[in-house]
UniProtKB/TrEMBL annotation:
Membrane-spanning residues: 6-26, 33-52, 64-96
Keywords: Membrane, Transmembrane, Transmembrane helix
Native organism: Herbidospora galbida
Entry keyword Transmembrane: yes
Name of this chain's protein: DUF4233 domain-containing protein
Amino acid sequence: MRRLGASVLGMEAIVVALMTPVAIMIGKVDPPIAVGVGCGLAVLCIVAAGLLKKPVGYVLGSVVQVLAIASGFMVSTMFFLGVIFGALWVTAILVARRVEGATKR
C-alpha cells in the first residue's frame, strides 16, 4: 500500500512543483506566493510519502489532495489535475487494501 501511495504522491509532487512557473507566467500570481504554494505543496507530497509507514502519512496525503484541488484558484487547470490525483489517491488506497486482504488469505 505504501508503494502505490508513494508513487501517486511522487508524481503529484512533480506536477505541483511545475505549477509554480505556470502560476507566475500565465496566472500572474506574485512569485513569492506561487513559489510558496507550489514548492510547499511539493514538499508536503514528499513528506507524506515518507510518512506512509504510519497512519498520519495517509491523513497528510489526503490533506495534500484537498490542497492540490484548492491550488486551482491559482492555476485553473489544477482543479482538474487535483481531482485526477485525488481519484488516483483513493484508488491506490482501495486497491492496495484489496491486494493486502487477498494475500493474507
